[in-house]
Amino acid sequence: MKQYQLGEFEEIVMLTIAILNNEAYSVSIKDEIEARLSRTVSMGALHTALKRLEDKSYLKSYAGEATTERAGRPKQYFELTALGKKALRHAKETRDELWQAIPKTVFPITLAH
Q1: Which terminus has fewer CB within 10 Å in the chain: N or C?
Q2: Phi, psi torsion values for 76, nearest 5 degrees
Q3: Domain residue spans of the chain
């Protein structure tokens, strides 16, 4: 379904938000992606993806507590919406179906998850 289409980076961002659960704010998302995938992430690209995902109603954000180390500014936290969870499930199911359709002669050894 076209309504659930996600780009690769969008999917990675959403999965990372799910992993971080209640601790998903831009710096923690960036750090988690870089640590897990050994992939450099620019804050600009991350903020663009977060905005795009919010515009699609896949994410919602909320302000945390203001802190002195942030000069009184609150962190902006992100969480998946019900629609975002449906989009991620759809992406996983689609990928699983495609992987299962590959002839065993192409990948004769079962791939570990």
Answers
A1: C
A2: -100, 115
A3: 2-101
Cα distance between residue 50 and residue 38, in whole Å: 20
Tell me the per-residue pLDDT of 49-67, one tens digit each, with 9 for 90 and over.
999 999 999 999 999 877 7
User: Whole-angstrom distance between the N-terminal and C-terminal Cα of the chain?
Assistant: 25
Residues 6+ apart with CB under 8 A from 78: 17, 24, 25, 29, 50, 54, 59, 60, 61
- Tell me the one-letter amino acid at 70: R
DSSP state, 58? S
For the record, the structure tokens of 24 come out as 């998903």
pTM: 0.85
Task: List CB contacts of 81: < 8 A, sequence separation 6 or more.
Answer: 57, 58, 59, 60
